[in-house]
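The data are quoted verbatim for completeness:
=====
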Amino acid sequence: MREELNQGLIDFLKASPTPFHATASLVQRLEGAGYQRLDEREPWHTETGGRYYVTRNDSSIVAFKLGRLSPLIGGIRLVGAHTDSPCLRVKPQPELQRQGFWQLGVEVYGGALLAPWFDRDLSLAGRVTFRRDGKVESQLIDFKLPIATIPNLAIHLNRTANEGWPINAQNELPPILAQVAGDERADFRALLTDQLAREHGLNADVVLDYELSFYDTQSAAVIGLNGDFIAGARLDNLLSCFAGLQALLNADGDETCLLICTDHEEVGSTSACGADGPMLEQVLQRLLPEGDDYVRTIQKSLLISADNAHGVHPNYAEKHDGNHGPKLNAGPVIKVNSNQRYATNSETAGFFRHLCMAEEVPVQSFVVRSDMACGSTIGPITAGHLGVRTVDIGLPTFAMHSIRELAGSQDLAHLVKVLSAFYASAELP
């Protein structure tokens, strides 16, 4: 089972180089399990026991199973994650020709570790909007092949590189795509037009705009002498998206279960399709009764916000509080912060710990050092919007926000098991 889950995650990561592709991958798997698409622009007709999903911006998704019991009786079991990861996004007018090389200007998306982006085989994927036959259309593209790289400067020309290297994102990150003759002018939009034709057989009149990201073509993999680890891009937070999906597909009880995976968490979540926007609340308002019954249902519900946790690194153990160093392959981590960077409280943490104990899943705790700043998640944002009780959890990870992150190969199975138990739980606190 563990090996099957890990391979499923690797396949999911490969198919999901961008939030758009991640959402499409989730849709494909949900539809294969009988989930039906709902259109936000149309009336909804849902039935008890029905399975549905809705997307927004092609990059966020809410999927839910309506239980045979009214949510007003037992509340809703919600799992939240995010589809985006730090990366390099192509600028609107990106063409650069310097020293006979064709490069593309990029903007750093989110808090990326930049050094690992050098000397990697990069491809390009995302959403393209174009005009065809007088109409505006959008389509996802993925070059898949390694079409670009960002070569390092040789140590001979940068003798102090190993003493700390401040990377200038404007000057040092534009990837190289090709060599060009002196008078040849490269046209990026023409390249995208050709890709639309190759990948989809679409003859676009003109490419109007795009949201495209570079990504590492190296596949995720189980690594280590004993296969202890999973290495790959975008584990933060597609690992949680995949675990939530598997748990939702396992859900067959009487309770109402919901999975939300939103975009833009890495840049603050403030958007129409981010956790700091109205998407989840608007979906719930269409599913639940109004007024008093709506508030009662929310207050009987619980959200597990799943986002990666910082595992204690053997080379940098001092970066953790001595009593709160989560270990890889030792189970999910309950994340606590007194300043509400995480939404966990004693009641929700206790319930999650209870679930883990009942399922014989190991569980850990994380609190940031008192002299360090704490990151945040969609947990406090969603709790603030809905007023829903929330616990922030995640799987321990190394090299978070790198182009290649590292997690434990046993932990995905742990997380799927406990999230499945959560969806199946007859009672919430």
In short: The longest strand covers residues 87-98. The chain has two domains: 2-85+233-424, 87-216.
